[in-house]
Amino acid sequence: MQRLIENTSLKNKLYVFKDRKAAGILLAQRLLGYKDTDGIVLGIPSGGVPVAAEIAKALMLPLDLIIVRKVQIPYNTEAGFGAVSPDNKILLNEDFLKNLNLSEKEVEQQIQRTTKIIKTRNILFRKGVVFPSIKNKVVIIVDDGLASGYTMLSAIDFVRRHESQKIVVAVPTGLEKTVYYILSQVEELVCLNVRSGFIFAVADAYENWHDIEDNEVISIIKNFYKLKN
Questions:
Q1: Under DSSP, is residue 126 helix (H, G, I), strand (E, B) or coil?
Q2: Mean pLDDT of 104-120
Q3: Which of 45, 46, 63, 183 is in Cβ range 3.0-4.6 Å of 56 for a Cys bridge?
């Protein structure tokens, strides 16, 4: 049975979190049942990493990265028509793609660009370290928000293929229709700020928003492990 945990007092409100770190702290309060369990927190780079670090710290769980990435529209890099998983499995939003009027060559070029970025990030962030075993574990997948949801769907598919026991999605904010679709794919979803409407931007949930650079991701990972050790 799927379970949605939200904060109804934040429904359809904007700028409800100071920043990603503050949002992670609030999310962790709704996930305390997983504290000190045989679970793992997986952050989606880049924006999901500072959120995931706070959750992992509060729950005393290991933190790792699940490097998935949306396939960007060539003329609008904020939007995507699919996603690619860490093992290069491609997930496309076929209905949306039909309306973009992109050629097969353009689609393939964007997929190849995405695959190359995942490979580069894997080297940069993971330093060749093998992805941990998640078999029979509770896996909490974290991002800074849900818009189209295809990046998260790709992450969910990857985790399921690696035989996790239970999948929990934790995001500070999300588009209502996406939240309910993602919920249908997992056992539990925590989204504190659910918003409806025609226009949705993840950034609108945060007072302080900036793109997370690669060096910030690396710093968060290093600092997290210093705190744990």
A1: helix
A2: 93
A3: 63
What is the residue whose two structure tokens read 């991002």?
143
Quote the pTM value: 0.94
Q: Which residues of 130-142 are buried (b: 16+ CB within 10 A; e: fewer)?
A: ebeebeebbbbbb
Q: What is the mean pLDDT of residues 205-212?
A: 96
Cβ 47 vs Cβ 91: under 8 Å? no
The verdict on domain 3-67+130-228 having CATH code 3.40.50.2020 is yes
HSE-CB of 137 using CA atoms within 13 angstroms: 19
Which CATH number applies to 71-124: 3.30.160, 2.60.40, 3.30.450, 3.30.1310?
Answer: 3.30.1310
Q: At what angle do helices 214-228 and 48-59 cross, to 10 degrees?
A: 10
Task: Say what the pLDDT of residue 226 is.
Answer: 60
